[in-house]
Amino acid sequence: MFRAMAEKKILVTGGAGYIGSVLIGQLLQQGYFVRTIDNLSFGKQPLEAYKLNKHFEFIQGDITNRNDCKKAVDSVNAIIHLAAIVGDPACKKQPELAIAVNREGSQNLLDTAIDAQVERFIFASTCSNYGKMSDPNGYVDETTELNPVSLYAELKVEFEQKLLNLLDTNLTPACLRFATAYGLSPRIRLDLTVNEFSKELALGRKLEIYGEQFWRPYCHTSDIARACILAIEAEKSLVSHKAFNVGDTNENYQKKTIVEMILKELPKAKDNIHYVSK
Ligand SMILES: NC(=O)c1ccc[n+]([C@@H]2O[C@H](COP(=O)([O-])OP(=O)(O)OC[C@H]3O[C@@H](n4cnc5c(N)ncnc54)[C@H](O)[C@@H]3O)[C@@H](O)[C@H]2O)c1
Is 189 inside a domain boundary? Predict the structure, then answer.
């Protein structure tokens, strides 16, 4: 690691979230100064472990508020933009809020970052941008056409396009299309496939599984955090105005495979599984 890089100040938006609270830990461990802005939709507890760290700064604020963004971007070298209304169900439930945060809040952050001469802007995008594939057994890469089928993915694609077409600024933008995350975090999410299945079966509950044959890409929270750090450390020409999938070809799983893996640890849960054909 370059010492000069580690002395830089990084703004993580949405740092109290599932991925953000893991990422902050890794950045601090590597010697970065870390600031986060979060409106604490899920509480403050995920940041508890960092609050006494002298390299950590917390702004309780909202990216839809331009003044909060100005404070957050002041004198930072790079931004990792995670704050969002996350996932298809959450955006479908509150479409106006999703548009306010994911479109207008992201734009606020970008405008203030350009004004403040921030060097790099990494955007947390999603594999959902690819939508439903014509060949369900095929693979996608970054050259595959995007086909968003939800408001969540439409807003991600829209902001990606804005960043990738950004001209005449000193800012280096890059987009990371995360696979579905799994694994532990100070703010655990139990609505994501691997975590949800593990929890339900560990608690001895019945689990109904729809579409057990469908494939999805997955990635561990700590690997997603590592990808974010790689994106701020990489040479500018390697990442500038580019989008990258964050996942691994070997981490594409069908739901039934995930269930089988959990059953190896919890064999008694076998009778609690019910595949629903649809
Ligand atoms: N978790 C996944 O599987 C996954 C997959 C692909 C992409 N992503 C993307 O990664 C990012 C982080 O996802 P996550 O799973 O950690 O979600 P999360 O919901 O756990 O975290 C989001 C954080 O943003 C904060 N936030 C929301 N609105 C805000 C606002 N207006 N101002 C300030 N803070 C606000 C929330 O309080 C929360 O702490 C998101 O952009 C998401 O779209 C996540």
Answer: no
